[in-house]
Amino acid sequence: xxxxxxxxxxRSGVLTIASIIGGxxxxxxxxxxxxxxRPLVVVSGSxxxxxxxxxxxxxxxxxxxxxxxxxxxxxxRPDGExxxxxxxxxxxxxxxxxxxxxVLKGDANQSQDPxxxxxxxxxxxxxxxxxxxxxxxxxxxxxxxVAGILLVLAVVSLYTIKPERTxxxxxxxxxxxxxxxxxxxxxxxxxxxxxxQGGLVPIGRVIDGELWVPVSVLGxxxxxxxxxxxxxxxxxxxxxxGAVE
Length: 245
Prior knowledge:
Layout: H1 2-35, E1 37-41, E2 56-63, E3 72-76, E4 83-93, E5 100-105, E6 117-119, E7 121-129, H2 132-140, H3 142-160, H4 168-171, E8 205-207, E9 210-214, H5 215-218, E10 232-234
Antiparallel strand pairs: 1-2, 2-7, 3-4, 3-7, 4-5, 5-6, 8-9, 9-10
Helix pairs in contact: 1-3, 2-3
């Protein structure tokens, strides 16, 4: 019973964790498809405390005219190596009339970014999930892939394998007796004191070759209801064939 209870607890815990992870992934995918969102992992602390390092952010493409000062946006770096996510502190239309120039600054930085970013659209941060990016990064690594496979196998095995039945030793049914504890062989129950074989109790005794029985057995009369003084007398001898003389 204890083994079955422990297996049920482990099964419930693993299934709960798998359900949470699987449900979160499904929700993110559906939300991304419906609203055109894209997930990114924040790897630096330039936007703390608003966006902690390791957070997962969901960004949505917005045209330049919809961007406002104070929005947190993600744009490509000037050198083209990766992205940067900072807050808009200044917005200036370009001379050509197409797009704008954005001046960005990280909340944790002392100064603005060294040069403005000319854009005609940018991806605005619409949702921040603190520290969820750490899990996403781990799952994308080789160790995370192996861990994911093992988790799936564990869920399948715990869901399909049934716990073994209780052993005979635990249930007490069909268990072999221990040495030295074999039951004693059946012995007849001792008869009450004075009993003979067949359950008959002697009513007299033989004295000098004659059978003496109590007077009450022979039906001897008593005086005034008192017990007779003579306790016993010889019984009449039976003749051959069972008749009484």
